[in-house]
Amino acid sequence: IAIDIQTDIDSISLDNLIFFNITSNDPSNLALFGPVDGYCWDNACSISELRGKYVQFNSSIAKIDINISKCVDLSSYIYQDKDNINLKSCYKPLCNPMCSNGKCVNDNICDCSGTNFKGALCDEHYTLKRIKILDYFVFILSIFLILSSIVLIIGVLLFRKNTVIKAGKIYLF
Hints:
Elements: E1 2-4, E2 18-21, E3 30-33, E4 37-41, E5 44-46, E6 49-52, E7 54-58, E8 63-67, E9 78-80, E10 89-91, E11 103-106, E12 109-111, E13 117-118, E14 124-125, H1 132-158, H2 163-167
Antiparallel strand pairs: 1-5, 2-4, 3-6, 4-5, 7-8, 9-10, 11-12, 13-14
């Protein structure tokens, strides 16, 4: 976050630098991330990341009010407690690695609904469901055909001296 303090760069001296330390008088409604000590120089202040409902800084020199707005675009951003500190923040979900076929709905969480895929990255196919009655029918038919073939082979071997089998011709009745 950069804060403009409207000073001229030609007039900056060490006496004009502003040093600050960020503290919170209400830690239940504010979380500070990163360094809390800093300074202002060259018309700007660089401060750490703030998350909370309302933040106010008091010092003997300046008072700066910072309002943290609520999330406006809920179609692509999420407004919830991201860091488990009981403070909601507005953020765009990031999936690393990216979702293959689904939609990234929260950090590293993919939604696979509406697709033919499953898994953490929506990259796994569903296993096909077998129709058991069809499996049984094919199994019984296969056994019947195998047994019929064996009976026919044994019949040909037993009656190999028969003239019809020796001739190898097809007779139509």
